[in-house]
Amino acid sequence: MNRKSKTAYVCTECGQDYAKWRGKCSNCGLWDTVHEIRLPASGRASAASSAAARAPAALRRLAECGVDDAQRLPSGLGEIDRVLGGGFVRGACILLGGDPGIGKSTLLLQLAAYVGDAGTHVLYVSGEESAEQVAMRARRLHVEHAGVELLTETSVEAVVRMLGEQQPGFVIVDSIQTLFTEELQSAPGSVAQLRESAAILLRFAKESGAIMVFIGHVTKEGAIAGPRLLEHMVDTVLYFEGDASYQYRVLRAVKNRFGPAGELALLSMSDDGLREIANASEFFLMNRHSPQAGTAIAPVLEGSRILTVELQALVNKSHFGMPQRVAAGINQRKLALLLAVLERHGGIVLGDFDVFFNIAGGLTVVEPAIDLGTAAAILSSFRNLPLRGDLAHIGELGLGGEIRPVNAMAGRLRELGRMGFKECIVPPPSRKADWFSEAYGMKLLPCAKVGGLQELLF
Ligand code: TYD
Ligand code: MG
Predict the structure, then answer these.
(1) Quick check: 221 pLDDT over 60?
(2) What is the pLDDT of residues 296-341, one digit of tens each?
(3) Ligand 1: centre distance to CA 227 (Å)
(4) Which of 139, 282, 376, 416 gets the highest tally of CB atoms within 10 A of its CB?
(5) Is cis: bond before 175, omega within 30 of 0?
(6) Is 305 helix (H, G, I), strand (E, B) or coil?
(7) Residue 270, preceding bond cis, omega within 30 degrees?
(8) Helix (H, G, I), strand (E, B), or coil: what is residue 222?
(9) Which of 140, 134, 139, 136 minimizes the C-alpha distance to 122?
């Protein structure tokens, strides 16, 4: 039992290796994230490295290699296929991260059932829940008869042995944090275990051509190692996000070797699983009634998709010395910055007013393209005057009060026109801007300075 084993030091956030321990990771700049990990004893073939792995690879011409799009495996949900870049690619490794309870197991069981019914051999490795629990979920999703095989196992060696025997085409590991390799003594979920277990399974996927999906929990405290470390190892990283108080869920591709990154799928959680949301661009406006003071409309670009959102501001006389500024859906500092620009260049004084800001539906937006809409919502609440119901806003706000152009103007305007908006306040167009002459059935109102905004709004 006295095998000589090596150690290494790895950052749990970014995966950077070090020869010695250090307090701060010089790669990602975080403190106290570098931990010692024990590497498997050298000189001894690990369970996963079969004879095939040792055989030298053959040379191939670049022109003869490539992904055949026809070979992509559909997932059963068009939204998910779009995020993946057209379906699953053989041999691809996918990491699905997200908070506990957001619906990761639900989504993957649904996809597994579809893929299994379409004729692919599917193996669902559950290290977290018992077979009965997974079966209960399957019944809820009405997929209990699907051709999915279940393995409740947490030893990677046992899993790989089973995979070798069964040769499945699609493997789901729920979750990667629960697996452990017998090569290491550290606890399941530790950095060393996570890294080694994933590496063994990845090797299997690449050799056999199976599609491998890992579920990973995101924890803030770092009690169990976050899946950040795995992001470098896999081909595709998907994040499943949402708010427990809302039905909708967002699946985002953060990294994708087989398709566009940043692409987004909109799904809704129902009593029997996840469903696609058909009219995504209108989804966040569905509960909108007549326009109220303090609300403004802006189109947001998410991946290749335009979502139209309602920006809400509430500006109230402050009763305490220090006015409150509370932002949801945008960065707190972003709100402070926009308020400063409005004060300096927009002709209003907000010094003794509380300002609350929210994006209806709980969406979070980082795009500066909603700056102008945010300013319009604040002005509307400040003056207690509702904006016209068929008016939208596009533009980034500069520190000098200037309104700057944003990308994808044509796409945003086309979507607004399609949804029946009649007017849109836009940045001043350059001379050869096609989107301005096109106008998409709307009246475009160019605005160069935030000082001129009130005139156009009221
Ligand atoms: P789950 O997939 O277990 O989440 P995760 O694997 O990310 O931890 O699902 C979590 C929640 O989803 C759970 O609170 C119940 C709810 N749910 C539904 O609303 N409808 C459904 O059909 C299913 C299966 C779950
Ligand atoms: Mg789960």
Answers:
(1) no
(2) 999 999 888 899 999 999 999 998 788 999 999 999 999 999 999 9
(3) 20
(4) 376
(5) yes
(6) strand
(7) no
(8) coil
(9) 134
